[in-house]
Specification:
The chain has 4 helices and 3 strands; from the N terminus they run αααβββα. The protein has 140 residues and is of the alpha/beta class.
């Protein structure tokens, strides 16, 4: 769609791709920089956390505590959070002001979500109060 995209990779993902000398601190150093807002116009955080139907509240497990992939930059860069499977992930990213539940991790659902974010088609439907996870900070 013409975007220049940077895909975040955890230390484990970087090591699996063959990078050497990568650890938690090197990832933080690469990603969590003061010029983050100068490097990026927007951020799209996508969670693809799967579980069984009876587990409607599976939490996001970040790569490490205080991981660089946690959207710490939301006040500096417009950020959209998309959950592909679980409708209740706002509890794990309450700082995000735009949260979308795409309902499925299929190409069609992802394409439709990106089109809606771009304003090429309208969002339809309504949210359920449960998305706020009964927590005050998800409504701030």
């Amino acid at each position: 769609m013409g975007f220049e995209v940077h895909i975040f990779k955890t230390a484990d993902q970087r090591r699996a791709a063959g990078e050497e000398g990568v650890n938690f601190m090197s990832v933080i150093s690469d990603e969590a920089t003061a010029d983050y807002s100068g490097k990026y116009d927007a951020a799209l955080v996508v969670a693809n956390v799967k579980g069984f139907a009876q587990e409607a509240a599976i939490r996001i497990k970040w790569s490490t505590p205080m991981a660089a992939e946690i959207p710490w930059y939301v006040t500096e860069v417009p950020t959209v959070f998309v959950s592909l499977n679980q409708p209740n992930h706002l509890i794990d990213v309450p700082m995000v002001k735009t949260a979308i539940h795409a309902h499925a991790a299929t190409r069609e659902a992802i394409r439709a979500t990106v089109e809606k974010i771009q304003g090429l088609s309208e969002f339809q439907g309504t949210f359920n109060e449960n998305v706020f996870c009964d927590s005050f900070d998800t409504r701030l």
